[in-house]
Amino acid sequence: MTGLSTRNAIVVGVDGSRTGLSAALWAAGVASRLHCRLVVACVATHPEYYFSNAAFLRSPEQPTQALQNAKVVVSGAIEFVRSNYADLDVVSTVLEGPVVAKLVALSEDARMVVLGNGGANVVSSLLLGSTALGVANHAHCPVVLWRGDHEPPESNHHRVVVGIDGSESGEEAIAHAFEYASAFGVPLVALHAWQPDTLPVHYPVADALHPVAVQAEAEAGLLAACIAGWAERYPDVVVIRATERGSAADALLAQAGSTDLLVVGSRGLHRVVGTLLGSTSQDMIHHAPCPVMICRIDD
């Protein structure tokens, strides 16, 4: 069984946008419930990290100004967080360089990394694009892409939904979903979507119904087996089992409307070798109306 991390810090990336502040508030609420330190981070960057010197000529003041701006952003975010969580252990870090590399480096000692969906400037506009995907693909801990109401997580109290697929990263997702559900006292929807095995085109329709029914029973058994140990570990969590025939992305998105957190593994069983996110996790990042946690197995 996968073990939860003993790292005791949640890192949130901020960029001066309202969305970044809301992500920080959400991360603070989770840190408070999990009794973690909150690290508010801002990466000061400038265009030469993305473009060649021939494409961009800068003055010597620009890096200094970017660093000063980052310090102001972090200071404002910490003040905002402490106005809601006065007793929370909050620290700041301002880094300079390529955003993905710096955030991935911070993830080495983090329990999770939280990023807002979108923002106000060149860097933040990348957060749900190449930056978010880059961090989610290479982070050493779960990554949460925040999207939703601009309220702390305590104000929601709906439920957690976790995608079950029997994969190793899916097991990691189950662990973190149970932890969150227990911390916030919300029910957990364990959802497993499956596709019928392909049958020959000449297969009789009447005979085809039987193997599909058998497969449905087997898929329900897979779901039960995947969550059994975690349900014993978290007896306080009310678990709602759901099996859906069809696309995993469609089934998860249908559940996401009144959900505090959607948790998925980075890649399913039928994955391409490599570190890239699978299609389901990418669909959740781009289309889910709630925070999405991507869990991957550290290489």
Automatic annotation (TrEMBL):
Domain UspA: 9-145, 158-296
Pfam families the UniProt entry points to: Usp
Domain of life: Bacteria
UniProt cross-references to InterPro entries, sorted A to Z: Rossmann-like_a/b/a_fold, Universal_stress_UspA, UspA
SUPFAM superfamilies associated with the record: Adenine nucleotide alpha hydrolases-like
Membrane-spanning residues: none
Gene3D superfamilies reported for this sequence: HUPs
PANTHER family linked to this entry: STRESS RESPONSE PROTEIN NHAX (PTHR46268), UNIVERSAL STRESS PROTEIN UP12 (PTHR46268:SF6)
Similarity-based family: Belongs to the universal stress protein A family.
Name of the protein in question: Universal stress protein
Protein species of origin: Antrihabitans stalactiti
